Amino acid sequence: MVQIRFKQFALKKAELGQVNLLYETTRMKKLKIAAIQMCSKEDRNDNLKSASKLMGQAITDGAQLIALPENFSFIGSESDKIKMAEDYNNGPSVKFLKKFAMEQGVAIIGGSIPLKTAHTSKVTNTCMVFDVKGRAVARYDKLHLFDVSLDDENTFEESKHTKTGDRVVTVELFGRIMGLSICYDLRFPELYRALVLRGAEILFVPSAFTLYTGKDHWESLLRARAIENQCFVVAPAQYGKHSSRRISYGRTMIIDPWGQILSQCQDKEDVITWEIDFDFLDDIRKRLPCLEHIRREKFFSQSSEEVAQKSYEIQNLNRNRR
Questions:
Q1: Based on the structure, what is the number of domains in the chain?
Q2: What mean pLDDT is reported for the chain?
Q3: Model pTM score
């Protein structure tokens, strides 16, 4: 049944974007996942020490895969991201994740790290994925950048110093397909539909949601993405006061394909773990076959390039209207 489903929803090669497949020999029936909640600040070394401690707790709890929050290694001003930007191969946070994965034999969804680009004034907000041997097996650059003005104290212009990504990314770990996203992406359901059409069974949403929006929207959006795509959702989050001007909502969650919260962090640095049961996911999709009823000819007839071009046209039009 699973093989038929993946075949049915497979996109044409030209539409795939970036898909990372390892084709491991074991297709896990169950997988113990840890989601980590942090309150990262400006000192990268302190943040990595905190991450190491929490990840160690996850290992003690038996985690096979660990997911970190957005900006786990650094939270400061947007302009400071430039001087904190890392090299894709040799950055301190990159080397930290690679070493931990290799030494502990655990897979890691690496939250996000500011990585260097060809433009000296911009970075990418990047989620790197490492397998149990410490190999970097996927890279996702955040597609939707947080440019909002909610009030005088909650105004952000992420695009000023961050270059937007251009690929939808899935990765195979433990014989299962994982979909990658970051924070503000959560407000764009079309991304998650694209991920599930590429076979995603777990959707990762490392985040640093603001307190202003998180208290009203965070849980609702996460549960909606889980329900409409019949996927597990793992959302490791930042929480608390990072500086005088920035507070994150927290409430790290793991949610099942029925939209039920399986585990949730309270307001502290913490780790939650849950054993994902893929038989439950298959049962939900079999009994309520929404994904088989998608009218793809009505909504997904355009190539990914045409969709991207139209999106850019709309964004430019909106900017010109401001």
A1: 1
A2: 88
A3: 0.87
